[in-house]
Amino acid sequence: MTGVPASAAGGSPSTKGAAGASGVPGGAKSARGGKLVDAAVNQASLWNIANILTMVRLVLVPGFVALMLADGGYDPAMRAWAWAAFAVAMITDIFDGHLARTYNLVTDFGKIADPIADKAIMGAALICLSSLGDLPWWVTGVILGRELGITLLRFVVIRYGVIPASRGGKMKTLTQGTAVGMYILALTGPLATLRFWVMAAAVVLTVVTGLDYVRQAIVLRRRGIAERQAAAEEAER
């Protein structure tokens, strides 16, 4: 099909012998060249659209804080701009993960930076709201404590497996983002009452999904230990 004679494609016996005796230098060079190419591709993939969106979200955090606290934190115009920055951060959070999974743009940088960016913008918003007296500190403590606790829990049980994101967890994230966004805006009247109930729902989902993740971690750990014990017993037989 290629038009290359079999003798040319396979090489003569003497040529093969010389290559084998010399430790296949050509093969070694090809392997090293392949590694260099792979490294170059991986380095280039750092600047994919998913990672850029994650970096945008990280850059938005200090700008968001400056807007939230401008003029004592009670300027409606500044709060509206802060809401816009928060909304952009939430939207990029949705799209960067989707793009990374859909177009195979997952990188080590993205795995580390994405959850940091998520927690940074949410944590900044909650702390700003509580420091301004708009949101009780215990609400901020519950939400941030849950997020940090579940993150640590994932690292503890990662040797046994990965705890997948649940539908409840996604609903929690959406409800939290909506509630915090409503608190960022200078709302009054019925909308101010509505945001209270949305935040209440967010707190309930935060606690319930957190407990569910703990349950999953316990099950995953027990299953992993049982599988290791069974494998050890099988090896001894």
Describe this structure in words.
The chain is an all-alpha fold and 237 residues long. The protein contains nine helices and no strands. The chain has helices at 6-10, 13-21, 25-45, 49-69, 76-102, 108-131, 137-157, 167-184, 190-236. Helix 7 runs parallel beside helix 9 and helix 8 (167-184) runs antiparallel to helix 9 (190-236).
Set out the fold topology.
Layout: H1 6-10, H2 13-21, H3 25-45, H4 49-69, H5 76-102, H6 108-131, H7 137-157, H8 167-184, H9 190-236
Helix pairs in contact: 4-5, 4-6, 5-6, 5-8, 6-7, 6-8, 7-9, 8-9
What would you say about this model in short?
Pathway: Lipid metabolism; phospholipid metabolism. This protein has 237 residues and is an all-alpha fold.
Write out key terms for the chains shown.
81% helix; CDP-diacylglycerol-glycerol-3-phosphate 3-phosphatidyltransferase activity; 9 helices; single chain; 237 residues; mainly alpha; membrane; disordered N terminus; globular
Question: Which residues form runs of ≥5 with pLDDT under 50?
Answer: 1-25, 27-31, 33-44
> Could you tell me the strand content as a percent range?
under 5%
Task: Tell how many strands the DSSP assignment holds.
Answer: 0
Share of residues in helices: over 70%
> Could you give a short account of the major beta sheet?
none
Class derived from helix and strand content: mainly alpha
- Structural shape: globular
Gyration radius (Cα, Å) is 26 Å
Query: Number of helical segments?
Result: 9
The SSE order reads: HHHHHHHHH
Give the CA-CA distance, first to last residue: 53 Å
Mean pLDDT: 80
Function: Probably catalyzes the synthesis of phosphatidylglycerophosphate by transferring a phosphatidyl group from CDP-diacylglycerol to glycerol 3-phosphate.
InterPro entries: CDP-alcohol_PTase-I, CDP-OH_P_trans, CDP-OH_PTrfase_TM_dom, CDP_ALCOHOL_P_TRANSF_CS, Phosphatidylglycerol_P_synth
Keywords: Cell membrane, Lipid biosynthesis, Lipid metabolism, Membrane, Phospholipid biosynthesis, Phospholipid metabolism, Transferase, Transmembrane, Transmembrane helix
GO cellular component, one term: plasma membrane
